[in-house]
Structure formats: C-alpha cells, structure tokens
Amino acid sequence: MTGQVRTVDGRVAGRRGQATRQKLLDCLREMLDTSPYRDVKVIDVARMAGTSPATFYQYFQDVESAILEIANDMAKDGQRLKALTEGQGWTGKGGYAAAEALVDGFLDFWREYEPILRVVDLASAEGDKRFYKVRQSILTAVTTGLTEAIEEVQAKGKAGDEVAPNAMAGTLVAMLAAVSGHQKGFETWKIKMKDVRPALSTLVFMGITGKKPPR
Amino acid sequence: MTGQVRTVDGRVAGRRGQATRQKLLDCLREMLDTSPYRDVKVIDVARMAGTSPATFYQYFQDVESAILEIANDMAKDGQRLKALTEGQGWTGKGGYAAAEALVDGFLDFWREYEPILRVVDLASAEGDKRFYKVRQSILTAVTTGLTEAIEEVQAKGKAGDEVAPNAMAGTLVAMLAAVSGHQKGFETWKIKMKDVRPALSTLVFMGITGKKPPR
DNA sequence: CATCCGATCTGACTGATCGTCAGATTTCTG
DNA sequence: CAGAAATCTGACGATCAGTCAGATCGGATG
C-alpha cells in the first residue's frame, strides 16, 4: 500500500531525497502552525528547510499535495480512535466512562493535529475528494463503531421507530469533531473546556442509549 | 453603527462607487461559490466585475477584508436564528417541535451561506479575531437562548449537579453548525439528511431537557 | 450647451511568487 | 578515483499583488 516515496517525475527517492522531502513536510507543518493557510508560500517553506523552491516541486505537485501527504500520516495515526468505540458495553456506568474516553480521545487527537485538520476540513467542504477521503477515513471508523453500538442498544430495548443509527452516529461524530476543532474558541469565550467535556460525554451517552447518564 | 461606505483612503463613496463596490462583493461571493478559497485572486474578481484590480483596492484592503464585509451582512441576517430559541417552552411535544424548528433554521441558514461560512470558520480557527467576532455574533445569540432554556429546565427539575448549561448550549450549537456545514458531505456518503434531521432534533431536545423526546 | 470639478477608474509599474528546466553539485558504485 | 546516478539550484518567463499618477466620467453651474 505505502509504495516507495517517489519524486514528481516518478523516480524512486533515495536516502538523501527522503530526508529532504521529510524536512520539507516538517517545515510545511510548522508553517501551518503559525501562518494562515492562505498565506503559506512554497518559497517560505523552502527557505525554512534551507533549500530552494525548485526542490520542493521535485517532491510535490503543489502545496495542497504536500499537505495531503501530512494528512495521510495523520489519518494513519487516527485509526487508533476506532478502538475507543469497541469492546465495552455502552449501558450503565461503564457506558458513560466509555463516552468520556471517546470524548477525550477526540479532543486530544484534534489538539495534536489542529492546523492540519483545519485545512482538511476546508478542502473537504470545498469538494476536494482527496481530502474528503482522508477525513472520512478518520471519521468512518468511529462512526461505524458507534452505529453498531446504537443498533445493539436499540435491539435490546423495546425499540419503536427510533432515530436512524447511522445518522445519529454521524451526527455525534460531527459534533465531536466540531467541538474538538474549536477548543481554543471555546476557551477564548466564556466556556471552559472543563465544562464542555461532560457536556459532550453526556450527549454521546444519550445519543447512544437514549437515556440520561447515571450519576 | 453602519457608517457610510468609505473607500480605503477614507473618502465617502457616492452612488457609482457604491454600485461598483457592491458588484465586486457580488462577484467575490460568486467566486467563492466555485473556487477554493486559496485560489481566489483579486485579479479574477476584478475581471468578473468588468473592472480593474486597482479599483478593487480602492474599496478593500485585501480579499479577506472584502469577505469580512460579506460575512458581516450574513451575520446581520443570522440574527433571525435567535428567535428560534425564544418564546416556546422546551418540555413535552412542543419542545421537540421547537428543536426541529431550530435544526431546520440552522440547516437552511448554513446552506444559504455555505461558502462564506467555510471561510469564516477557517479564519476563526486560525485566530483571526475579526472573523471570530462575526462567527460569535451568529452563534452567541443562539447559545445564550439555549443556555437560558437549559437553566430553566434544570431549575424546574430536582436538578442535582447537572452539566453546565452554557457548555451544553455551546456544544449543541457547535454540533448544529458542524453538521450544517457538512450537509453535502453527509449526502455524498451513505447518510441521508432526512435521517440526520431527527437525530439532531433528538440530541437538541435531550441536551436541553435531559429526556428522550416523546413520540 | 460649454465648462468645471470632484468622484471614479485604470494603465503601467515594482516587487513577489509560481512553476520549469537545463545544468551544476553531491553521493554512490565499482 | 572515474563514471553514473541522484539530487539540488540558479535563472527564467509567467502571473499576481499592491500602488500611484493621470485619464475619464457624470453631474452641477452659469
């Protein structure tokens, strides 16, 4: 799957090439930490990496492609979120703990990759399928996990015509992603993340079980 | 508040000037509908408006400032969302209907201003205070409305140490904004908006009342 | 209607970045 | 160390940002 690293013109990159490429990616990521996406210039990234713009274009089609690369690595790391939906039952006290773990996992993950996820979100919303795919690869795992959990709960209960499990799961995941992506915003405002965590956990729990969490 | 329209160098714009300015804003908005934010060029906007780049810079500092202008108009329109949290009680069947109305209001609003909201979201997350303020002016009204609703419900009930009302409200609003902003994404995927609406309404209702909605 | 004047627009320019390519430089191989 | 392969870069044409002085427009005046 993860084929060898190649240059734009298809040659396989050697040791030195890989190092340069990686350095460019690192610098790009740092750049995104500090500058608005719209203002990230190839020339700045190259300068920071101590190389020339031409070198950048040897390894990447354009800035977007390079970010996509970083995003792919991130998505690989993101697969660990999947585990947070599996294994434990979702009812009762253990269920609420599971909800809390899921929430914390999201918050941490988003905090770590915040600038990249911003770009991924934008590009996805703008219809770029490559980025949409990356975003989905992170969210899908969690969404399907939650979908199964909801289906299980609904099967157990007398279950009338409930909310569609996958819609509820998708909504919960979108909520988690959104709040995670605006952590700074919340804190700049009058809302403490300390209070947001239980709010999220409660909504996740209620979305899955349909009940108020136990105290 | 809404002072006269001024050029960059402080002169008050007359009829012709206002028309030109508006045309530029319209073209910019159309541009954002079709091109990625990062690719929107002043020169293209000017060309589309049948004028020259120099004219653009007569009315706007840069592309961001112009978008901010559009965003401000949008925010003004967005104040109508406030009404959706007021007036009706949130308990029982009427409460669920209110939740549905709120959800629909959000979905419609976001659909209408999608490309602008994308940029507002990004710029806010990137720390641009001007855009953050616009975003807040839309969300705050709704958030405070919901906060009051939750406080009211909690006061009525025996209310132990519940979730912080403003955190819950902020979370619900973030959820609504997120899902609204990814409507296309949901549909491209396997989730129907037809199913998402009740999921959202249910979460809103449960977040406020702590109970499952009545059937 | 001719003239004038402020409002408005634009051609033209400088500087910055993009994206490319041929050729220089470095590293590897034997 | 020579030769080949890999890697890097200076330099270039094209595009866009942003500025300014001067051209044009449109209404007011006599």
UniProtKB/TrEMBL annotation, chains A, B:
HTH tetR-type domain: residues covered: 18-78
InterPro entries in alphabetical order: Homeodomain-like_sf, HTH-type_TetR-like_transc_reg, HTH_TetR, Tet_transcr_reg_TetR-rel_C_sf, TetR_C
One function term, GO molecular function aspect: DNA-binding transcription factor activity
Keyword Glycosyltransferase: no
Keywords for this protein: DNA-binding, Transcription, Transcription regulation
DNA-binding interval(s): 41-60
Signal peptide segment: none
Keyword Transcription regulation annotated: yes
PANTHER family cross-referenced by the UniProt entry: HTH-TYPE TRANSCRIPTIONAL REGULATOR BETI, HTH-TYPE TRANSCRIPTIONAL REGULATOR RUTR
Protein name: TetR/AcrR family transcriptional regulator
